[in-house]
Specification:
Chain A is of the alpha+beta class. In chain A, 26% of the residues lie in helices and 21% in strands. Chain A is globular, with a radius of gyration of 17 Å.
Chain lengths: 219, 807
């Protein structure tokens, strides 16, 4: 049975505990960043950040400030396009772990010719994988499969203090998602579950995806 | 906190004001989210829309430094609409007390003001007393000088229009908060107020908090589940270090610092032991001599005897009216009146206001000892940018300090829970924890005094001092022990055994306790209670998330302070669904009650506010230096030349220094028209001395920024991400512009007032990140606590041609 995340953005405080915990668990070095007039840092996913919290602010129809937070990571699609596209170039460079549903990159990435890199990256509807030329690997969230095998939940979920992130069996998470959605709709009539039928990382968004991130959802 | 973190979930309304709870308490914020899940209304009142505001039902922007005006308007609203909890106010507060004829309030000044000394003669504010010395009360609340009517009169000026004009909050937004929060005046509703440094760091800091006390008492929100006034404590161990007297004006357990007028213990006790004429007042501080004697016994052990005043004479005595706070220490240092010193656990060259003066002051030391995890702006002040290291005479000793995970001991959290932490790893290299530096240092000094003598060697030589530091042993000493075989009830305790609770502390030298509040935390019967991790509870306790067997909290494991006010005079809870305590079959059930006495209706009953001499909570508080009722005054640096509440623009009694460097913008100074407020953030801890050395945190928040509105940015020709020069009357700081809708211009007294916000987490020892924001902030202080006004000053900004501090 595959595993699923529920990320309820209406509970997220953008503390970035998940972003940091992900780096710590995966032993990723810090990037040298700059203040560019935004709290979102690093500005984008990169080989040293498999997960970042994106910030988006706008005024609603009543001129109230709305500040949305979006902890962005690989969605571990139920039918991952990246696996199909990579398979056409180097079979087994991207795989889907049967036990968990995690989409993983393998050492076979090193065999991918340079001119094929862009097409594999572009295959992702969520703009997730990043290529690290030194190790010749695509980098992205691996659902903490090492932790899962040890009976632990992913590091980001473990760290989340406000209950924005939940993780478990798919059915259980879908049930929880419906419950949370019903609660969220009381305040946010446009609340919805992003691409719930096709991904293992389901986001509960309070409003349209453009108020979060260009690639927040596919549909 | 009067209550505790978990208890926030019981609230029907949560007012976060003077705090950015989600960013500064990201883990504990889950209890606020729980309140929301349970249907509570969450409100954030703060100059800037932050991550806290994002999770609240609504955010109300408030001009920094106008909290009393904002809350004064709420007081008027409650009184006008009679939303207060009438039975509670009458029975448990001093609303009915009659104030003496000498009290007056005229145009911003209370009676008894002396402009020369900038102080009040507080005797003018006293209550009227009967022949027996008891305060006179009018239970009909009709007397024109009863507290209730004086309060009504005082806040009558705080109309929606006036408050809106001064605070910059629209009348609609004022009403939104007032309506929502004041709905908790109903007996079965609870509202909590959460605050932090956004309230304390003002020249009216104490009165900001007093205003919340007035509101919460009127609404009957003190003592109940989901209520209270809750200070969100930041750095561990702020609560514990306050309890144990890190502050300059008290000894451990909130006992006054001995003064020069009190040369003997008898004189000390006479001045510090309140007496009440009310028979139903517990007047708990009447026990103070027991706590003082036990403290001295803890310090001096067998050397402390009744014959020698328990060595009271060896304690240093403060001079009358002398201020020993850190800002006064730094001013002395600036004037060359100090030769050397120890700076532990603080980075004043980044975190204290008016940092340019601080940095110059430190240059005057001959020697300085710092203990730090990393080099800091303080330890390395001698080689700061723009200064020739060779010109600095200070000899600096930098002692490597252990990290908090490298030591064992207790931390007291905001809810007063005493929690034991084990050491995770040994300190690296030569690093030591503070006590392993301090205990041997004192032993070295003792050896020197022993060998060479000196002035008053007994002060150190008579100390009951260990050879080596052992945290477990100190936990025992803090609780206290018997120094003679003693019977408590039916049980005999031997000399050397632990005192079971502070009720057993004595004045005769038979007991010691290094802090009476913590007496009961480490007993013969149950051992070290800070280590308890037992979640068991009764069904009644489960309903309000009360875990009496998890750790331990002061006093006597009482989780909600003043809980006897959560019941009516017959001991019946105002809200039976969220019972804190209840009188059942002749005893109290639930939390540990504020004293064992039966309910108030019983002739043996006592008033619930047992720490106040007369047992009633003080709507009118004649003890503070700046007035018995909170009154709005502008910050010392203000964009206004006048305000409508009175002619008294600023607090008449705020403190300040007068050195050549202590300069202030004048009121409505055209050179500095913009309000600056300062803050911390999730990613860096306080001044950032530790976290700037954690690369992953620096990656998230790498450089100093200044948050400003689009309107101001446009006016100044500044674009998002541009370098900006920020200037105040005291300094100049570089920052990166963060142009955002989260800060909006205020309309104040019909004019547009801009506000900008900056974190204070950056300092020059971290390359290219910027330097101390506090070079801008103002050295003006609250008269009661001398806390500096770091949350409000006036600045100007312009686009930078080039940056030298940030790259």
């Amino acid at each position: 049975m595959s595993k699923t995340f529920l990320i309820d953005t209406t509970r997220c405080t953008a503390c970035r505990g998940c972003q940091l915990a992900c780096k710590e668990w995966n032993d990723l070095p810090a990037n040298e960043t700059k203040q560019r007039g935004s709290h979102q840092n690093p500005p984008d996913l990169n080989p040293n950040n498999y997960k970042i919290v994106r910030f988006h602010e706008h005024l609603d129809a009543d001129n109230n400030v709305v500040w949305n937070f979006f902890p962005d990571q690989c969605r571990h699609c139920l039918t991952p396009v990246c696996v199909d596209v990579a398979d056409m170039v180097v079979p087994g460079a991207f795989i889907k772990d049967a036990a968990t549903g995690a989409v993983l990159v393998t050492e076979k990435c090193a065999q991918i010719p340079e001119d094929a890199l862009e097409s594999i990256r572009n295959a992702c509807p969520y703009d997730i994988p990043r290529y690290e030329p030194k190790s010749k690997r695509f980098t992205k969230c691996d659902m903490c499969v090492d932790r899962l095998r040890a009976g632990l939940v992913p590091m980001c979920v473990k760290t989340c203090p406000t209950g924005a992130m939940a993780f478990g069996e798919r059915k259980e998470m879908l049930d929880l998602a419906q419950k949370r959605l019903a609660a969220a709709r009381e305040r946010f009539p446009k609340a919805h579950l992003a691409d719930a039928d096709s991904v293992s990382v389901i986001y509960l968004l309070a409003e349209e995806k453009e108020y979060y991130h260009q690639y927040a959802s596919f549909m | 906190m009067t209550n505790h973190w978990i208890d926030i979930k019981n609230a029907d309304a949560v007012l976060i004001i003077g705090s950015n709870a989600a960013e500064h308490h990201p883990v504990a914020f889950k209890w606020i989210m729980k309140a929301k899940d349970n249907g509570a209304a969450l409100m954030h009142v703060d100059p800037k829309f932050s991550r806290t505001s994002a999770r609240c039902d609504f955010h109300v922007p408030l001009r920094s430094g106008t909290d009393i005006a904002f809350l004064g308007g709420m007081l008027r609203y409650i009184l006008e609409k009679e939303l207060h909890h009438k039975e509670y106010v009458l029975n448990y507060t001093n609303a009915s007390f009659i104030v003496g004829k000498d009290y007056a309030f005229e145009d911003g000044l209370f009676s008894g003001y002396d402009p020369k000394s900038r102080t009040y003669d507080r005797s003018k504010w006293a209550f009227e007393k009967g022949p027996d010395g008891a305060p006179l009360r009018d239970e009909s609340l009709k007397h024109e000088r009863c507290v209730f009517n004086l309060m009504k009169k005082h806040y009558d000026r705080y109309t929606l229009k006036t408050v809106s004009d001064v605070t910059g909050v629209s009348e609609q937004n004022l009403l939104r908060v007032y309506d929502t929060f004041c709905a908790t005046g109903k007996p079965d509703k609870a509202g909590t107020i959460l605050y932090a440094l956004g309230w304390t760091q003002h020249t009216v800091g104490v009165q900001n908090i007093r205003t919340s006390a007035l509101i919460q008492l009127l609404l009957g929100n003190i003592g109940i589940a989901g209520g209270g006034i809750n200070a969100l404590r930041g750095e561990p161990n702020v609560q514990g270090s306050t309890d144990h007297a890190l502050l300059y004006h008290i000894l451990p357990g909130y006992i006054a610092l001995p003064q020069a007028d009190w040369q003997t213990l008898e004189q000390f006790n006479k001045a510090n032991t309140p007496v009440t004429a009310l028979k139903n007042s517990a007047n708990w501080w009447g026990n103070r001599p027991k706590y003082m004697a036990s403290l001295l016994k803890g310090w001096y052990g067998d050397e402390a005897t009744p014959e020698n005043d328990f060595c009271y004479g060896l304690l240093p005595k403060g001079e009358k009216n002398e201020d020993y706070s850190y800002m006064y220490v730094m001013d002395k240092m600036y004037h060359g009146k100090m030769k050397g010193g120890f700076i532990f656990g603080v980075n004043p060259m980044n975190s204290f206001p008016h940092t340019n003066k601080m940095r110059k002051a430190l240059d005057n030391l001959d020697w300085m000892v710092c203990s730090e995890l990393h080099h800091s702006e303080t330890s390395d002040n001698w080689q700061r940018p723009g200064v020739d290291p060779k010109a600095c005479k200070t000899e600096v000793f930098l002692l490597p300090s252990a990290h908090r995970v490298e030591k064992a001991g207790t931390i007291s959290n905001s809810g007063r829970w005493l929690q034991w932490f084990d050491k995770a790893v040994e300190p690296g290299g030569e690093a030591r924890n503070f006590a392993d530096i301090f205990v041997p240092l004192i032993n070295r000094l003792r050896a020197l005094y022993q060998a060479e003598g000196g002035v008053l060697p007994e002060a150190l030589l008579k100390l009951n001092w260990p050879e080596k530091f052992d945290p477990e042993e100190w936990a025992r000493r803090i609780n206290g022990m018997f120094w003679a075989d003693t019977k408590v009830g039916n049980k005999l305790y031997k000399r050397g055994q632990q005192v079971p609770a502070f009720g057993a502390l004595q004045t005769d030298g038979s007991t010691s306790s290094l802090n009476w509040l913590y007496c009961g935390s480490y007993t013969e019967e149950e051992g070290n209670k800070s280590k308890r991790r037992d979640p068991s509870q009764t069904p009644m306790q489960a309903r309000i998330g009360l875990f009496p067997n998890w750790s331990w909290c002061w006093p006597v494991n009482r989780r909600i302070l003043y809980n006897r006010a959560s019941v009516d005079v017959n001991g019946k809870p105002w809200n039976p669904d969220k019972t804190v305590i209840v009188w059942q079959d002749g005893k109290w059930v639930g939390d540990v009650p504020d004293g064992p006495w039966p309910p108030m209706s019983d002739p043996k009953g006592k008033l619930p506010f047992i720490m106040n001499t007369d047992g009633y909570a003080q709507l009118y508080g004649p003890g503070r230096l700046d007035g018995p009722f909170p009154e709005h005054y502008e910050p010392v640096e203000t964009p206004l030349a006048a305000h409508p509440f009175s002619k008294q623009l600023r607090s008449p009694v705020y403190k300040f220094h007068t050195s050549d460097m202590d300069v202030f913008a004048k009121a409505a100074d055209p050179r500095y028209p913009i309000v600056l407020t300062t803050y911390s953030m999730t990613e860096h801890w306080c001044g950032g001395g530790e976290t700037r050395n954690v690369p992953n945190l620096l990656e998230c928040e790498p450089q100093l920024y200044i948050e400003m509105s689009h309107e101001l940015a446009k006016e100044k020709g500044i674009k998002n991400g541009d370098g900006v020069i920020v200037e105040s009357a005291r300094g100049r700081v570089e920052a990166i512009a963060m142009v955002t809708i989260r800060i909006r211009p205020f309309t104040v007294m019909g004019k547009t007032v801009h506000l900008v916000g900056m974190p204070f987490a950056y300092g020059w020892t971290t390359p290219k990140c910027g330097d101390s924001t506090n070079r801008l902030t103002v050295a003006a202080y609250d008269p009661n606590t001398t806390i500096p006004e770091a949350k409000a000053c006036c600045v100007n900004i312009r686009k930078a041609d080039k940056l030298t501090e940030i790259a």
